[in-house]
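Lecture 7 notes: from sequence to structure.

We start with a single chain of 418 residues. Read the sequence below before looking at the structure.
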Amino acid sequence: MTEFPYAALIGIDWADDKHDVCVYDCATQTQEQSVIGARPEAIEAWVMQLRSRFNGQKLAICLEQKRGPLIYALCKYEFLVLYPVNPQTVAKYRQAFTTSRAKDDPTDAELQVELLNKHRDKLTVWQPTSPNLRKLQALVEWRRTLVEETGRVTNRLVDVLKGYFPQAIDCFEHRDTEVFCDFLTQWASLDAVQQMSDEQLHQFFCDHHSRYQACNARRIEILRNGIPLTEDSAIVESSQLMVQALVSQLRSLITSVRQFETEIGHLFAHMPDAKIFAALPQAGTNLAPRLLLAFGEDRTRYQSAQDLLQYAGIAPVTERSGKKCWVHWRWGAPKFLRQTFVEWANESRKASVWAKAFYQAQKQARKSHQAAIRALAFKWIRILFRCWQDQVPYDEAKYLLALHQKGSPLAQQITLQP
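Now the structure, written as tokens:
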């Protein structure tokens, strides 16, 4: 009888075109290597061979992926138990015994089997969350990707306009908008827009819900009094064509972001914990779903708020060696998760009295803006963790009362605020 809970331990070093596989048979204590294709049909055939060979017994698979094509292909088989590991884990493990830094895909597959064999107690089994939560996670991440792409296209558009029509940039503080796209679609040059009357330009801005008289007057004045940067037709005509191409991309991205936001809002509203995160100050329609995802739905995942603080990279790292001790930024942390807490902590200052006071106290202590915001995020996570565990929405008044009852220095800081 084997001492292993699995019939076999398998390591997979994945690639776009093929996967190197190492299979350790726990009964015979032998291992073999092979290569399988990356196509779904090849993976399916390989898994069916494993099912037949080991009579459907549980098999442990170690792979350097927490999401992606390979784990999506394998998670549907109930007899496969997946242990995703960080690629850096395998790399550091390899370097511990190969100081020359030699690397080979089959060797990495062997190392993953060794990790399963000797250090399985330190690895975490992949447990899929609910379909709605996974869908929400994908939606918010894709939305963030589209927002970043919107920024890149907008920057390229501004760069082109600087070369022949800078007045268009001066007229709009926010350029990732439909009004900016429509303006450039109708008038892609200063000469074209100066042929319009003041009434026509004013009507254009009003039609796009820009009804501030002073703002519209300033825009019209800039356009009316402007002079062309250049009249070189080679530059102007080629730039106009590029502007139209970029405007088309920007308009499409703006529409796509709105579609994602609509889907995210609908899905978030039906999540069981939505009320907890929707009540947070300045969370809004974008940050509230991201905060819900940061905590997840498994309340046993984190034993304490400190576990989440460390995982998210908000808690700093302390290093000690001999008589030396230093504290520094935590490098190994999910970037998107950390951004979520930091961005929301910064926004919370606009609506939370104590958050604003706490930030000001940090600044008075000569902390940088980023350090102060991270400290605020640290404090917020501890509060949210308790709300999440108790399934109770955050109440600003109740928290302020608790600060006063405990005689917190922060309560005194709030009292001294103008």
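The CA atoms of residues 55 and 252 lie 52 Å apart. Keep this in mind for problem set 3.
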